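The record is given unchanged here:
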Amino acid sequence: MAGHDLRTGLRALASGTDTVYEFEALYERYRLQIYRTIRGIVQDGPTAEDLTQETFERAFKARAKQSTEGSPGAWLHRIAVNTSISYLRRQKLARLLPMRMFTGEGTSDFDHADERSLAARALAALTPKLRAVVVLNYYQGMTRDEIARTLRIPPGTVASRLGAALESMRRALAETDQEGAPDRLNKGRPW
């Protein structure tokens, strides 16, 4: 579906003359992007699936309030980020995420490998707001201005959050690297 068709679909959504087909087209176009954004923020596949569904439910209910001038992707990402952060606040998972990395709560081999990856550990060390900016920038490929419009924050705040997030991730990776260094140094030695 082209950008013009999406905006036409949004106008229909906003006016209340939308059809199931038009909303379904938005869902099909953005479902995977929204899932990946949420997955990056909440760090849990099944939860991300549930929150993706919740995001589209909220979008459907709020369709009459959506401006037809804005990007439908930015609108949906804003709902997704807000839904993810609200979830983390409700569950108080922001403090517990790093612990989850070591307890291996994933259900599949892929989840276990993913949760043990350095990037996942570094992301887990971030607050939800910092994580949202990193996920939108690096995983969704959004520019600073697109992120600012999506999250409705100034571009300078986006830059500041990105800088703070990258510094925090560097520290987390350095700590991980230092924790593993003694093991690497002693490999193959009997003492």
Residues 26 and 128 are 26 Å apart (CA to CA). The radius of gyration is 19 Å.
